[in-house]
């Protein structure tokens, strides 16, 4: 069965084609084809790789807001031109979509029909950077591959097991009755990493207390006990919690009312301030990419150093919070762009976590190992680096629902 996965982000569009037989491997399988579009202002970059990870196409161009057309052109490269791996799009049986917000109703992966699509669209009011582009992707597939079954896999679904004390905000109880609660995000990868950690540690998942640290342009932690999410840092929207690439994470809500009252700030200004002009970019004034922050920091840039220090401070504080929710921790997992690639962030965080019994093997940490234990033998807490495999996890859900 050939399965196409669309992973729509606010500033990127990833696609991967998998071929999966009736016996699904418990370990990730490399896609036959991968395509990725990145947008930075008016610039667009397209990268296509084959099953061996070889780059088949890499081009950048100046482009206006033409996201749907660019995504359509990228997907058509699957069956036409020099990067084609299919005879036609009709070979694709199922298309799986990563959908960031499923709300209170969509709590598990599901086949997409008109009602599901409508619910996803309505939730764009909560996750405007993500759900809108997911709907665009669904509608594009309806036009491009009308014979394919479409499946939605939700980032919020893994966190449906949050206990009431973790998911209900301390506002008026009517909020909760209206659906305003902590939903949590990055659940597809948090769940995958917890299960992958089980395999790496050769332990029964039901006995493990794990903190998964999804650190990318968006960042969140999850406290996973017995394979279930019992606490997390993101909340009603993907804005709560850790400092991120361009997002502020948690702040005093009084700051928002201050800007409304004293500065007469409106929605667009506040949304831009919190979602696009804060985080690493807002503090450093340089970049939202941790690699650029570390490079500038090492060259003596004080604001880059401050951005790094705040990021680590918030990360360590929230790891401590997750450990408290779990009543202890057996393993800490670092995953996603920063988690997998920044030895500096892992080292700084683990140094501050020695009170938990964390002891990092600095030699292993510096070698950037995928899916490996980078703690010492004496460490009371295992420290793992696990490569994010959201596309593979989505493909597996598509098989399950087929």
What does this 3D model show about the protein?
This protein has 402 residues and is α/β, with parallel strands linked by helices. It folds into 2 domains: 153 residues, ATPase, nucleotide binding domain (Nucleotidyltransferase, domain 5); 183 residues, Nucleotidyltransferase, domain 5, CATH 3.30.420. The protein is 37% helix and 21% strand. The protein is built from 15 helices and 14 strands. The strands form 2 sheets. It has an 8-stranded mixed sheet with strand order 5-4-3-2-1-6-8-7, sandwiched between helices. Helix 10 crosses helix 11 and helix 11 packs across helix 13. The N and C termini lie close together (10 Å).
Distance between the termini: 10 Å
Write out the strand line-up for the largest beta sheet, numbering strands in chain order.
Answer: 5-4-3-2-1-6-8-7
Sequence of secondary-structure elements: EEEEEHEEHHEHHHEEEHHHHHEHHHEEH
| Poorly predicted spans | none
Radius of gyration: 21 Å
Any idea what the CATH architecture of the largest domain is?
2-Layer Sandwich
The largest sheet, given as strand count, sense and whether it forms a barrel, is: 8 strands, mixed
The structure class reads: alpha/beta
Tell me the number of strands.
14
Under CATH, the topology of the largest domain can be stated as: Nucleotidyltransferase, domain 5
* Total number of distinct structural domains: 2
Helix content: 25-40%
Shape: globular
Number of helices: 15
Mean pLDDT: 92
Taken as a percent bin, the fraction of beta residues is: 15-25%
């Amino acid at each position: 069965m050939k399965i196409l996965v669309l992973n729509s982000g606010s500033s990127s569009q990833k696609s991967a084609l998998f071929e999966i037989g009736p016996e699904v491997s418990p370990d990730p399988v490399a896609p036959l084809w991968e395509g990725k579009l990145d947008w930075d202002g008016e610039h667009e970059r397209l990268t296509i790789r084959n099953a061996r990870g070889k780059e088949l196409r890499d081009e950048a161009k100046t482009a206006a807001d033409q996201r749907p057309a660019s995504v359509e052109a990228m997907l058509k490269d699957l069956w036409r031109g020099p990067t084609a791996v299919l005879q036609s799009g009709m070979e694709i049986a199922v298309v799986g979509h990563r959908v960031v917000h499923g709300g209170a109703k969509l709590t598990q992966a599901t086949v997409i029909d008109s009602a599901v699509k409508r619910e996803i669209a309505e939730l764009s009011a909560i996750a405007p950077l993500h759900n809108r582009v997911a709907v665009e992707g669904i509608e594009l597939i309806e036009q491009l591959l009308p014979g394919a079954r479409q499946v939605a896999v939700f980032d919020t679904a893994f966190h449906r097991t949050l206990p009431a004390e973790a998911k209900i905000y301390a506002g008026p109880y009517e909020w909760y009755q209206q659906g305003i609660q902590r939903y949590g995000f990055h659940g597809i990868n948090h769940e995958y990493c917890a299960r992958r950690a089980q395999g790496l540690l050769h332990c029964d998942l039901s006995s493990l207390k794990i903190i998964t640290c999804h650190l990318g342009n968006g960042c969140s932690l999850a406290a996973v006990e017995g394979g279930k999410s019992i606490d997390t840092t993101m909340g009603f929207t993907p804005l709560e919690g850790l400092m991120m690439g361009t997002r502020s994470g948690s702040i005093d809500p009084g700051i928002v009312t201050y800007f409304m009252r004293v500065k007469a700030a409106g929605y667009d200004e506040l949304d831009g301030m919190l979602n696009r002009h804060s985080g690493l970019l807002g503090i450093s004034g340089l970049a939202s990419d941790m690699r650029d922050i570390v490079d500038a920091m090492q060259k003596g840039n004080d604001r880059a150093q401050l951005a790094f220090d705040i990021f680590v401070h918030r990360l360590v504080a929230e790891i401590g919070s997750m450990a408290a929710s779990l009543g202890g921790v057996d393993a800490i997992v670092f995953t996603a762009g920063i988690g997998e690639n920044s030895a500096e962030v892992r080292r700084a965080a683990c140094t501050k976590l020695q009170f938990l019994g964390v002891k990092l093997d600095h030699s292993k940490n510096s070698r950037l190992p995928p899916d490996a234990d980078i703690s010492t033998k004496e460490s009371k807490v295992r420290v793992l680096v696990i490569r994010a495999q959201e596309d593979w996890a989505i493909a597996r859900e598509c098989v399950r629902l087929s």
